[in-house]
TrEMBL record:
<keyword id="KW-0547">Nucleotide-binding</keyword>
<keyword id="KW-0067">ATP-binding</keyword>
<dbReference type="InterPro" id="IPR003439">
    <property type="entry name" value="ABC_transporter-like_ATP-bd"/>
</dbReference>
<dbReference type="Pfam" id="PF12399">
    <property type="entry name" value="BCA_ABC_TP_C"/>
</dbReference>
<keyword id="KW-0813">Transport</keyword>
<dbReference type="InterPro" id="IPR027417">
    <property type="entry name" value="P-loop_NTPase"/>
</dbReference>
<dbReference type="InterPro" id="IPR003593">
    <property type="entry name" value="AAA+_ATPase"/>
</dbReference>
<dbReference type="InterPro" id="IPR051120">
    <property type="entry name" value="ABC_AA/LPS_Transport"/>
</dbReference>
<dbReference type="GO" id="GO:0005524">
    <property type="term" value="F:ATP binding"/>
</dbReference>
<dbReference type="InterPro" id="IPR032823">
    <property type="entry name" value="BCA_ABC_TP_C"/>
</dbReference>
<protein>
    <submittedName>
        <fullName>ABC transporter ATP-binding protein</fullName>
    </submittedName>
</protein>
<feature type="domain" description="ABC transporter">
    <location>
        <begin position="4"/>
        <end position="251"/>
    </location>
</feature>
<dbReference type="Pfam" id="PF00005">
    <property type="entry name" value="ABC_tran"/>
</dbReference>
């Protein structure tokens, strides 16, 4: 069943049509890669789904929830979490604190109630235990008390994913997760991302320029050009799609 449903989404910036009536779906537990040449509208689509931009027309639904009807700050409660190209971490906090900061966005409305019920100290302990478990699952537990700013970029990319997972999302938006990584780091990160749907029950939407990585881990790919969907299908179908090859993949296919 489709988990994420985007229908006839359009976004204009002044005279530029960045998204032109684009529709797509992602099934629950799928990894969907968005590809396309520079300026195709991938980031714009990503930012409309993540409620950074308010689209000019169209709809975005996650399960039964109309994401565009929510105020942008409620997006985490609806089950959407994201990572950022340039890391959305707090450099002067420890790994553990960064992950706990990610978890706070999920306690939201129930937070006050649970404080009244179990007290703030117990709530903190619960979040801390959850953050420790996540660090362990992402093989980052040895860094729990390291400051984020003291660790290499590749390790911080994993921490960024741990932080996003801490809110218990249903949809994870990954914005160029492999940007700035070495080839061996990309391999490790691909394995991690590939394992996320099964281990954490998330659906993943991924924007990434490293073609081998997208082709290797995506269940489906949406190829975009000039704000429109050029093709949608399995990596194999996309690799062989004449229009995709002509407009974008060329030698990379
Ligand atoms: N905030 C903005 N203001 C004005 N124009 C924008 C804005 N964001 C994107 N655009 C324009 O919308 C179009 C789509 O851009 P977008 O960044 O979504 O493409 P992209 O596929 O993500 O490209 P890239 O691979 O280079 O990141 C481009 O023509 C871009 O110049």
């Amino acid at each position: 069943m489709a988990d994420l449903v985007v229908e006839e989404l359009s976004m204009r910036f002044g005279g530029i049509t960045a998204l032109d009536s684009l529709s797509m779906t992602v099934e629950a537990g799928q990894i969907c890669g968005l590809i396309g040449p520079n300026g195709a509208g991938k980031t714009t689509l990503f930012n409309c789904v993540g409620r950074v931009y308010q689209p000019s027309a169209g709809s975005v639904r996650l399960g039964d929830v109309d994401l565009l009807a929510l105020p942008a700050h409620r997006i985490a409660y609806a089950g959407v979490a994201r990572t950022f190209q340039n890391l959305g971490l707090f450099p002067s906090l420890t790994f553990l604190e960064n992950v706990m900061a990610g978890a706070y966005s999920s306690v939201g409305g129930g937070f006050l109630k649970s404080i009244l019920r179990i007290g703030i100290a117990a709530q903190e302990r619960e979040l801390e235990a959850r953050a420790h478990r996540l660090l362990e699952m992402l093989e980052l537990d040895r860094h729990a008390f390291s400051l984020a700013k003291d660790q290499p970029f590749g390790t911080l990319k994993r921490l960024e994913i741990a932080r996003a997972l801490a809110s218990g999302p249903r949809l994870l938006l990954l914005d160029e997760p492999a940007g700035g990584l070495t080839d061996s780091e990309v391999g490790e990160l691909s394995e991690l991302i590939d394992s996320l749907p099964e281990r954490f029950g998330v659906t993943v939407l991924l924007v990434e320029h490293r073609m081998a990585m997208v082709m290797g881990i995506s269940d489906k790919i949406v190829a975009m050009s000039y704000g429109r969907k050029l093709a949608e299908g399995s990596p194999e179908e996309i690799r062989q799609h004449p229009e995709v090859i002509a407009s974008y993949l060329g030698g990379a296919a």
